[in-house]
Design a protein that fits this description.
The complex is a heterodimer. Chain A is mainly α. Chain A has two helices and one strand, in the order αβα. Chain B is α+β, with helices and mostly antiparallel strands. Chain B is 67% helix and 10% strand. In chain B, helix 4 packs antiparallel against helix 8 and helix 12 packs antiparallel against helix 13. In chain B, a hairpin with a 2-residue loop joins strand 6 and strand 7. The chains are: A mainly alpha, B alpha+beta.
């Protein structure tokens, strides 16, 4: 009986854990892939050189 | 800003990835080699171990570890190949999430491997707790600050959590493994010590080599060195395979050998695709190490297996011969018993008949002393007849010639009659014989009336024989579609060892001391007869001197 109770607790614990993981993954996907909400650091000098070359 | 970013991307001249992982951005064949090798081998090990024993928790955790490790390797390959900044941010985050989970799972694996049992829920919560901040804060700037386009690096800029916290908890998990192993090692017996040593070494090597590349990458931004860390997986797999062969941990020697051959084939094939001679040397060095470690263990195992098989073959042949001889002897014995019993029955019938006639005065009055002698002759003849009947029945059963004349009858009626007949014998010994039953119609069964009567007689007669004082309670009850006949006494009882052999042929138990005349076949015959009626026979006893309860059950007529 104790083992069964422990198994049930364990299943509940892992279910909650994986649910939280899935929510976190979905939120991360939404932020980075769907709405592309992140900062991009660029090389300003390379950009300027490119503009000069084009002119 | 958009123009600036797009121009910067164009300047870098990245290739667009096909199927997420194939592109010219992956500039070394070694990267594909190291990733595919680690991914395939880890999955093979995990799936083989799991399919060999799905119920084992160790197998389940190992499968989880290898699957998330393979996912990590795949995501890493995506990061090498992709030119999409969103994908880089997303898959980089996933890698940060998976890494501590591999460490946590390794601790869990070690616990279960050593204890051979699951851990407490509280320990599981303690294992999960350090990972929770990473899971919850994964989509925030604490994990990734942004995407770095400078120098065409295509790297995500890691935040506080990924630069410091993840490594802190990874160190925490490694320390946990060390402390757990040392504590268990000290307490373990010598054979367990070797197991603990090797499994810990395998896990530590795997985790250290796995971390090596990431730590170097995070602090120096040199992610190429990180690829060498993936070779930690074959080392871990090598140790795992060693555990399989040496300690039969998962009992999948054959599967381990198949995994080795597959991995070796893959290694050799990979060499054909490497153009850089330095990389070839590296791959060959790893292959050689892999072959030496696993090959030696497997050869030893195969040699041992072959020797055992040869010995087993010889033993099997000897056993077959012995079995054939035994079958022949058994047949001879059965034929002899049958013949002897038949031959014995005729003179016994004559002895019984004439002694009975002598006692009843058919040949005239005889003096009291002679009468007493004749009575003893009659009683001994009766006992001998019973033994001969038993032998004859056993030989019939073993020859498959026992015939049952089936019909319906009331078991309670038979038990009542037998109890009544035997109550005189019980009374002569100073015993009280009680009888109780449900109604006759409730206790109607289908079977051979005479054979079942023989079993009832045997049970009650035994109880009277082996009970010095007290009571013998006979009962017949109908319980959920079955008629249960039981004889409970306050007699000599028995030990569990005697109980286990009591229904075997010639088993006498402690009863041999009280009743030297028995053949040891009565209970064997009872069991055979009841089982032929699709019923069950059993006995219960609290121990020597505490009485016993013999019972059998038959299906009732609905």
């Amino acid at each position: 009986m104790q083992i069964e109770a422990s198994n049930k607790k364990s299943k509940k614990l892992f279910s909650i854990f994986f649910l939280v993981v899935m929510i976190s993954i979905v939120a991360t996907y939404y932020r980075y892939v769907i709405i592309k909400d992140f900062e991009i650091t660029t090389d300003q000098d390379a950009f300027n050189e490119s503009l000069l070359e084009n002119q | 800003m958009e123009t600036l970013i797009q121009t910067s991307i164009n300047l870098c001249q990245w290739d667009t990835a096909q199927l997420l992982i194939f592109s010219d951005n992956v500039f070394g064949t070694l990267i594909y080699y190291s990733h595919f090798f680690a991914l395939i081998l880890s999955l093979i090990v995990g799936i083989f171990v799991f399919t060999s024993n799905r119920e084992s928790l160790t197998s389940q955790i190992l499968l989880f570890m290898t699957v998330i490790f393979s996912l990590w390797v795949f995501f890493d390959l995506v990061l090498w190949a992709t030119d999409n900044s969103s994908f880089t941010m997303f898959f980089w985050s996933l890698e940060i999430l998976i890494e501590p989970m591999i460490y946590g799972a390794s601790v869990y694996f070690l616990y279960v491997f050593i204890n051979k049992n699951d851990i407490k829920t509280l320990t599981k919560i303690l294992l999960i707790l350090p990972i929770l901040p990473i899971i919850i804060l994964l989509p925030t700037k604490l994990t990734l600050l942004g995407f770095d386009l400078t120098n065409c690096d295509r790297n995500a800029v890691e935040g506080f959590l990924s630069t410091y916290y993840t490594y802190f908890i990874e160190i925490l998990y490694v320390s946990w493994i060390f402390v757990l192993s040392i504590v268990k090692y000290i307490k373990a017996v010598p054979e367990q010590k070797r197991q603990i040593f090797f499994i810990t070494l395998g896990i530590i090597l795997f985790l250290l080599s796995f971390s090596f590349g990431n730590i170097i990458g995070s602090f120096t931004d040199d992610w190429v060195v990180g690829q060498l860390g993936l070779f930690g997986m074959p080392i871990f797999a090598g140790f795992l395979a060693y555990m399989i062969v040496r300690f039969k941990t998962f009992n999948i020697k054959l599967l381990g050998a198949q995994a080795l051959v597959f991995a070796l084939g893959f290694l050799v094939l990979a060499v054909a695709f490497i153009r850089n001679i330095e990389n070839v040397k590296l791959v060959i060095a790893f292959t050689l190490l892999f072959v030496l470690l696993l090959g030696r263990a497997l050869i030893k195992s195969v040699r041992k297996e072959v020797m055992q098989r040869e010995q087993l073959q010889i033993l099997s042949e000897q056993l077959f011969d012995a079995n054939e001889k035994l079958k022949g002897l058994d047949k001879l014995k059965t034929e002899f018993l049958s013949l002897a019993s038949h031959q014995l029955r005729s003179p016994l019938t004559a002895m019984k008949g004439y002694s009975s006639m002598l006692m009843e005065g058919d040949f005239g009055e005889i003096n009291p002393k002679a009468k007493e002698a004749v009575e003893r002759i009659f009683q001994s003849t009766m006992n001998l007849t019973k033994i001969v009947e038993d032998f004859l029945n056993v030989s019939k059963i073993e020859a498959g010639g026992m015939k049952y004349e089936m019909g319906t009858f009331s078991l309670s009626e038979i038990a009542r009659d037998m109890s009544k007949d035997l109550s005189i014998t019980a009374g002569q010994k100073g015993l009280k014989l009680n009888f109780e039953s449900d109604s006759d119609t409730d206790c109607t069964v289908n079977g051979d009336r005479e054979k079942v009567r023989q079993v009832v007689l045997n049970f009650i007669d035994n109880s009277i024989k082996y009970t010095k004082e007290g009571t013998v309670n006979v009962s017949v009850k109908k319980v959920s579609g079955k008629v249960i006949f039981s004889v409970k006494d306050t007699g000599m009882g028995m030990t569990p060892e005697i109980k286990a052999t009591l229904f075997q042929k010639f088993a006498r138990g402690d009863g041999a001391r009280m009743n030297t005349g028995g053949s040891g076949l009565g209970l064997y015959l009872a069991k055979e007869i009841i089982e032929a009626h699709k019923g069950t026979v059993d006995v219960e006893s609290d121990g020597p001197g505490k009485g016993s309860n013999f019972h059998f059950e038959l299906d009732t007529i609905k």
